[in-house]
Amino acid sequence: VQLQAFGGGLVQAGGSLRLSCTVSGFNLDDFDMGWFRQAPEKEREFLASIGWRGANPFVVDSVKGRFTISRDNTKNTVYLQMNSLKPEDTAVYYCAAKRPSTILSSPYDYWGQGTEVTVSS
């Protein structure tokens, strides 16, 4: 089971990035997916999730209106579109997978290695 996040990089404030998370070793159809981030010296922060068939996309209030989660099960890929980026969005971004659950806060089972996003002011 592998998850690989990519698409990070250096961007100016106000810019956009689209992160992708490609999975292998399991069928994406069978899993809820989420995005997290961890800034330097801060705890990991949950950002967004999407159900196993694309249902119930959820984004936390702190990035709502700027970040959008989506998935393409035919490509075994989940996306995080990030617009209007701010310096405080600088972090390592991780994707994760878990068995379908109605509980938003249920733990994730599999994690990718992270992709770094740096937003310059």
Uncertain segments of ≥5 residues (pLDDT<50)?
A: none
Mass-distribution shape: globular
Mean pLDDT over the residues: 94
What percent of the residues sit in helical stretches (DSSP H or I)? under 10%
Radius of gyration: 13 Å
Secondary structure tally: strands: 11
Provide structural commentary.
By secondary structure, this protein is an all-beta fold. It has no helices and eleven strands. The model has no long low-confidence stretch (mean pLDDT 94). It is 0% helix and 50% strand. Strands 2, 4, 5, 6, 9, 10 and 11 form a seven-stranded mixed β-sheet that branches. It has strands at residues 2-6, 9-12, 17-24, 32-38, 45-50, 58-59, 67-72, 77-82, 91-98, 110-111, 115-120.
Summarize the structure.
By secondary structure, the protein is an all-beta fold. The protein is built from no helices and 11 strands.
Summarize the topology.
Layout: E1 2-6, E2 9-12, E3 17-24, E4 32-38, E5 45-50, E6 58-59, E7 67-72, E8 77-82, E9 91-98, E10 110-111, E11 115-120
Parallel strand pairs: 2-11
Antiparallel strand pairs: 1-3, 3-8, 4-5, 4-9, 5-6, 7-8, 9-10, 9-11
Distinctive features:
seven-stranded mixed sheet; mainly beta; 121 residues; globular; four-stranded antiparallel sheet
